[in-house]
Amino acid sequence: MKQLLLVFIGGGFGSVLRFLLGKWLNNSNDGIPYGTFAANIIGSLLIGVILGLAAKNETLSTNQTLLLATGFCGGFTTFSSFAYENHVFLKSGDFTSFAIYTIASFIIGFLAVFFGMYVVK
């Protein structure tokens, strides 16, 4: 039960922060979802750092990892918004934004995880 509560609390904080970041960075004028992009990249970096610390000499406990990685990062990052925003790009015929957003999200996201793990080594 304690583990469920930790994931719940972490997820709540992550979701609220993602919402605020989206309100601040997403621009309805040009339609580019900078807030979602930033949340996914920052979340990828954070989960790399968190899981790197968890693996390194067991710096983080299982409960801390659940709170931060599963809860906070899980609530903060969003694949569903990413998928929907790409749907909007395709539906509107904006194939350039679709390609740039998708490729940049995957490449920079993966690199952020690896960089986060590298930093804590």
Report what the structure shows.
With 121 residues, the protein is mostly helical. It contains 5 helices and no strands. It has helices spanning 2-25, 34-55, 62-76, 79-91, 95-119. Helix 2 runs parallel beside helix 5. The chain is globular and about 50 Å long. It starts with a helix and ends with a helix.
Which features does this protein show?
121 residues; 0% strand; 5 helices; single chain
Task: Describe the secondary structure blueprint for this structure.
Elements (H helix, E strand, L loop, with lengths): L1 H24 L8 H22 L6 H15 L2 H13 L3 H25 L2
Helix pairs in contact: 1-2, 1-3, 2-3, 2-5, 4-5
- Bin the helical content: over 70%
- List how many beta strands DSSP finds: 0
Low-pLDDT residue intervals, each spanning 5 or more residues: none
Strand content: under 5%
Distance between the termini: 32 Å
Summarize the structure.
With 121 residues, this protein is mainly α. The chain is built from five helices and no strands.
